[in-house]
Design goal:
With 358 residues, this protein is α/β, with parallel strands linked by helices. 24% of the residues lie in helices and 15% in strands. α6 (246-257) crosses α7 (262-268). The longest helix is centred in the last third of the chain and has 14 residues, at 340-353. The relative contact order is 0.20. It binds guanosine-5'-triphosphate (GTP). Guanosine-5'-triphosphate (GTP) binds at residues 198-200, 211, 213, 216, 239-242, 244, 249, 252, 262, 266, 300-302, 305, 324, 355. Residues 42-58 have a biased composition (Pro residues).
């Protein structure tokens, strides 16, 4: 960000300066907009106060390995009332995939999807070698081997002079890709770790301490990059602002500064508290071979997301849930986000949206 270099200390890529905690700019005020006087006026419980602000940074660099293993909780949604979902999953098509080396040394494959319900570029960030997209690997009429490699439908690695998308002579274990084979991972494969992430420009790019979206994205990438991790997928859905879009989210922020909580602000703008859907995520996971009995381990605290991701006919099965604990809570306040705003944000998630964060 060249324009900012004069005003800020020199930054590592993707990182942001370590601002001191801001004064309580979002101090709650009495207002006719305040639909929740008691909660909004009372001080936040100490457990919600997170005393240090760590802005979003490059995946995998920000979060210390506090727990050695990944703690997960078994999930059984069969007895739950199914949420209202569309009868049919959308159609998705992975149009291109590319290798992304990251500054931590971990590599991931970014998959870009098109679909038949919106014209947004939803993404799947794939960690590990076993997960492949069926729609990407499927042959396209008339395409050459170079065409296939350019759109990422190759096995192994690309290198100068490579001519076949299916066989890499420089790879120690070259193998053919049968384009008709299932893309599910091989034997010994345990359920992949999955995060369904909704876009948050403010939290992931603009260093906002109003929410922990950037921290959650970093943490998901870190967990999927651990040497002990097998396969992982971050499905990155373009449903900014819980589906209301960035412009409306910014209006909601102004309402929050006027005293509303995150749910009230959405409602005052005549949006649902949460306008998101997860059919695209389900369809993308199926395309990536994450359907069926093997199930997935889902990184979330959001009870609605768990069942919604499974799809109308439980095409994807959430076997375990891995809680996303705010970094400030896990680290005893040494790391993580510190702001008055995030206290209100987490309080509304727990109190009003039923998030499973104790
Ligand atoms: N409308 C609105 N959206 C917000 C606000 N803060 C963050 N978001 C959006 O919320 C979405 C992230 O959702 P989260 O609630 O963190 O995640 P979740 O999917 O509900 O739950 P977890 O899986 O447990 O993290 C992103 O689309 C953000 O842009 C806000 O104050 N208002």
């Amino acid at each position: 960000m060249p324009g900012l270099t004069g005003a800020m200390p020199e930054l590592p890529s993707h990182a942001s300066p370590n601002y001191p905690p801001r004064p309580s700019s979002a101090r709650r005020v009495s207002s006719e907009l305040d639909l929740n006087h008691v909660e909004a006026q009372s001080p936040p419980p100490p457990i919600l106060v997170s005393p240090a602000f760590t802005p979003p940074s490059t995946p995998g660099t920000a979060t210390p390995p506090i727990h050695k293993g990944i703690r997960s909780i078994p999930v059984d949604t069969t007895s739950q009332k199914p949420p209202k979902l569309l009868d049919q999953l959308p159609q998705v098509d992975c149009v291109v995939r590319a290798r992304i080396p990251t500054v931590t040394g971990a590599e991931m494959f970014l998959h870009l999807y098109q679909n038949n319900v919106d014209n947004k570029e939803h993404l799947a960030i794939v960690f590990g070698p076993n997960i492949r997209s069926k729609s990407l690997d499927a042959p396209r009429p008339g395409e050459t081997e170079l065409d296939r490699m350019i759109r990422g439908a190759y096995t192994g690695r690309l290198h100068p002079g490579r001519t076949s998308s299916r066989v890499d002579p420089q790879s120690s274990s070259p193998h053919n890709t049968s384009t008709t084979q299932s893309s599910t991972a091989g034997p010994g494969h345990s359920s992949p770790l999955v995060r369904i992430h909704s876009e948050c420009y403010t939290g992931e790019t603009a260093w906002s301490a109003r929410c922990d979206c950037g921290e959650q994205l970093d943490e998901a990438a870190r967990l999927m990059s651990l040497p002990s991790s097998q396969d992982g997928v971050i499905v990155y859905l373009r449903q900014e602002g819980r589906g209301i879009g960035l412009g409306e989210k910014l209006k909601a922020y102004n309402l929050q500064d006027l005293g509303s909580d995150t749910v009230e602000a959405n409602l005052l703008l005549r949006h649902p508290a949460d306008a998101r859907s997860y059919g695209l995520a389900t369809a993308m996971l199926l395309d990536l071979g994450c359907g069926g009995d093997a199930g997935i381990r889902l990184l979330t605290n959001n009870p609605d997301k768990v069942r919604a991701v499974e799809g109308p006919n439980r095409e994807v099965i959430v076997k375990e849930r891995v809680p996303m604990i705010p970094l400030a809570w896990k680290s005893g306040g040494k790391r993580g986000i510190h702001s008055v705003e995030i206290e209100g944000y987490l309080r509304a998630k727990i109190g009003k949206m039923g998030h499973m964060l104790e």
